[in-house]
Design goal:
Elements lengths: L1 E4 L3 E6 L2 E6 L2 E4 L1 H5 L16 E7 L2 E7 L1 H4 L6 H4 L9 H17 L10 E6 L2 E5 L1 H4 L5 H12 L1 E7 L6 E7 L2 E5 L4 H6 L17 E7 L4 E6 L12 E4 L4 H12 L7 H11 L6 E3 L6 E3 L1 H23 L7 E6 L3 H16 L1 H7 E3 L6 H14 L4
Parallel strand pairs: 7-10, 8-11, 12-17, 17-18
Antiparallel strand pairs: 1-2, 2-3, 4-6, 5-6, 5-9, 9-10, 12-13, 13-14, 15-16
Helix pairs in contact: 10-11, 11-12
Bound molecules: adenosine-5'-diphosphate (ADP) and magnesium ion.
């Protein structure tokens, strides 16, 4: 089981089976939990959008709603403000329990009559990651990585409370590892999921690689020696501050598009759904009036790309002393490519963009794919 506890989305690969769940966790009390649902959920595939679980924490049973169901309970812009400390926060732990419950429910053939409502799941090998900005707070990276890994090692019990699907699941994690976000992505670039060499790695054989991981709330940078080799020191891992994409997006919404989008999540979704189209039409749900938004959105993305480029260049000045290429990963890089092409093209010419700014496929999942490559090679469990 490999997991990415992203601030925006939780992504997990269990036996190579990918699930994405929006990172929303809301704690509720027992009374509210008991009459939360109007009707029981009988279709197993509906669990993912109706997740309610409980678990015992320090002797007390605590109840949570998770994922899509929790969205309406949250303040809509909350996810852009606080980056949770994944070592301290209960959010990753609850997401972990919920995703195993989802896997167990989806994958188990069951005959509820006469069968026990207690199930067991054994995780042979669990891996997750911590981001660079958080690791930099620890005096030793390895202490914090071990502390995070230890949270998942061993035995856990989760109760599924969604009516119609109730059960108790005993989880045993036999081996748990925590690695460095951004850094593990290099494995997803070196190898594919059959552990064959990935042709994209050829671009980085002779040059320094600057991995730029653009998430919703942070931009992390990892500088790798030629050949996508392991970073030389802690200084090769840094975080850019003041360029958080969702904050930039929220400012833009407040200034320019307030009448079209009531919160930043809606604007973020609109961009993801429409990026790459020649038109970006927004229909007002009440008046049915259609407004074309391609121009202001492209302008905004170019503004963000220009700011980011400047920051990146400043940040690597001391770290990179030879020929290098930028390699973009993370969800935002999937919407930023054309804006970056324009910005770099205007500043240095189109050829520089093609040669030096590399955008890869599966950018959003690259860290997770890196973990998958590691676990496949360590467990020998692949075809
Ligand atoms: P984090 O690591 O902070 O959770 P991600 O790397 O998942 O963030 O990036 C989140 C961003 O990815 C969103 O703000 C959105 O703009 C962008 N994005 C691009 N493609 C998608 C997609 N298919 N679904 C959701 N978000 C996407
Ligand atoms: Mg991320």
């Amino acid at each position: 089981m490999n997991t990415d506890f992203g601030n925006s989305y939780f992504m997990t690969l269990i036996n190579g089976y990918l699930k994405e769940i929006p990172t929303n966790v809301v704690e509720i009390n027992k009374d509210k939990a008991e009459d939360y649902f109007v009707n029981p959920i009988t279709d197993k595939s509906k669990f993912i959008s109706n997740m309610m679980i409980s678990t015992e924490v320090n002797g007390e049973e605590r109840y949570f709603i998770v994922g899509k169901l929790a969205e309406r309970e949250m303040f809509k812009n909350e996810h852009i403000r606080t980056l949770h400390d994944k070592v301290e926060s209960i959010i990753p732990y609850v997401m972990f329990l919920a995703s195993i419950a989802e896997f167990q429910i989806a994958r188990t053939e069951e005959n509820r009559e006469g069968q026990s409502e207690e199930y067991h799941v054994t995780v042979d090998y669990f891996q997750t990651m911590l981001p660079v900005w958080l690791l930099r707070k620890a005096s030793k990276f390895s202490d914090m990585l071990n502390e995070m890994a230890a949270r998942f090692q061993g035995n856990h019990i989760v109760q599924v409370k969604t009516p119609g699907l109730e059960r108790s699941i005993h989880i045993e994690v036999q081996q748990s590892k925590c690695r460095i976000e951004g850094e593990v992505a290099r494995w997803g670039l070196k190898k594919d999921l059959s552990l064959e060499d990935n042709p994209v790695a050829d671009l980085f054989q002779k040059v320094v690689t600057v991995i730029v991981d653009i998430g919703g709330g942070t931009v992390d940078i990892v500088v790798l020696p030629p050949g996508l080799d392991s970073p030389r020191s802690k200084d090769s891992l840094t975080t850019l501050t003041d360029v958080a994409y969702l904050k930039y997006l929220e400012k833009f919404r407040e200034h320019k598009l307030l009448e079209h989008f009531s919160d930043v999540r809606e604007l973020e979704d609109f961009i993801v759904r429409n990026i790459g189209r020649t038109e970006m039409a927004k229909k007002d749900p009440i008046t049915q009036q259609v407004t074309e938004l391609k121009e202001p959105i492209s302008e905004m993305l170019e503004g963000y790309a220009a700011t980011l480029l400047k920051k990146l260049e400043g940040e690597i000045r001391d770290l990179v002393k030879s020929e290098y290429k930028f390699l973009y990963i993370g969800g935002v890089s999937e919407v930023l490519r054309e804006a970056m092409r324009d910005v770099v093209g205007k500043k240095y010419g189109e050829e520089t963009f093609e040669k030096q700014h590399i955008f890869v496929e599966n950018a959003r999942q690259m860290n997770l794919i890196g973990l998958e490559v590691i676990s496949l090679s360590e467990t020998g469990d692949f075809e």
